[in-house]
Amino acid sequence: MSTSTPWLSNSFPTSSRLDVDSSALHSSLEGISLSESTLSESYNDSGHFASFVTLVAGLERSLNNEDPLFLDLDIWLSSNRTVIASGASSRVEKVGWNSGNFKGKYKERWGNFVALKYTRHHTDASRAIVNWKQLLSEVRALLHEPIRYHPNIVRLLGITWGAVEGMQSNFPALVLELSEMGTLAQLQLNSEESLSFDIKKKLCLDVAKGISILHACNVVHGDLKHENVLVYPNRDTSASVKYVAKISDFGGSVMDLGADDFRSLHTPTRPWLAPEFFSSNGMSEIELKLTDVYALGLLVWRTIVDGQNPYLPLHSDAEPMSDSQIYQMKCSNELLDLAKEGVLHLKLGIGSDGIDTLHYVFENTIQFIPSLRNCYDHAHRSYASRVALRTDATNCT
Ligand SMILES: Nc1ncnc2c1ncn2[C@@H]1O[C@H](COP(=O)(O)OP(=O)(O)O)[C@@H](O)[C@H]1O
Ligand SMILES: [Mg+2]
């Protein structure tokens, strides 16, 4: 299968919408919901670096019985690294633990290698503020306890600094649990054969559970897509599906919205973006959450079509649709019809119950009118039971 998918990497910085005023970092620190009292005592506005250290130290203290979050790059991690991904705003490398260090239990628990995520250096000062803000959002989301220990969220193992070849980054790097399998996009696009429907369903369910915990903690992901879902081996070796999906990349996440606050998304990716983004200057927390729900529906659709571009006209060899065509189809709800009709043409072997489930998922997610995205199951505080597994709802929490 082709892995050339330029249309997928259509991430666009919405700089005009970014709130890049100089108080951004300060206010994001002030609004912290974790260890607030500890932090407010020690925080002072002495620069991004110091603010960041103060913030993480406070979060570290709030996590009981954990190893230190600050890791010395030279001591704990090997200098032998391989680049996994290199984008406009970050670079991710695979790196091993240094042999002989006392991180033996890390190795045992998280494997021989970790992923190091570096933020790129920008000379433009306003861009640097945005980078700090995104880094803070990512760290705060990943260290918030209910999110940190959730099986469908990537685990942040630590934070480090160090010189990186070819990068002038003075930003801290995140040490993350490495996925050897890569993203959901890589898993699907590199597989010779389609994943079975059961595997696809389980992976979508995992993502829905991850979104559920984020929303329960009032965190909006803001850039949900295949490239931000990592796949790991299932630690439960007796499980019928050998994979676990975990949501990653929280740089675009939005949090701390009060009842009267309105915000935009920072780093959405156009093909997976809910249409109302373009007609609003700011959205409430519930409205922002509903953009994640829209993206979740699109993720389910793309998973069903093996990670390929789902926006292909059904009955022709025409080129993939342009951004504006996709937008028009989202606004007219033709996209919903395309998704529903599309799965009828695939030989999924899932019977009418399976098709009904998919139609139900699409009808309750990729709706133009946000209030019709009715897939939150209040009884279970979860999207999972309705979105991914309507037929096995009793198994879901
Ligand atoms: N923990 C990880 N394990 C393996 N690959 C990763 C990991 N984290 C990120 N990547 C790879 O790096 C890419 C970029 O990382 P991401 O966190 O999405 O940052 P960006 O903000 O640049 O999109 C991902 O799409 C994925 O291919
Ligand atoms: Mg990403």
UniProtKB/TrEMBL annotation:
Signal peptide range: none
Keyword terms, alphabetized: Kinase, Transferase
PROSITE patterns on file: PROTEIN_KINASE_DOM (PS50011), PROTEIN_KINASE_ST (PS00108)
GO terms assigned for molecular function: ATP binding; protein serine/threonine kinase activity
Gene3D superfamilies associated with the record: Transferase(Phosphotransferase) domain 1
Residue span(s) of domain Protein kinase: 78-383
Domain of life according to the entry: Eukaryota
UniProt cross-references to Pfam families, sorted A to Z: PK_Tyr_Ser-Thr
Keyword Secreted: no
UniProt protein name: Kinase-like domain-containing protein
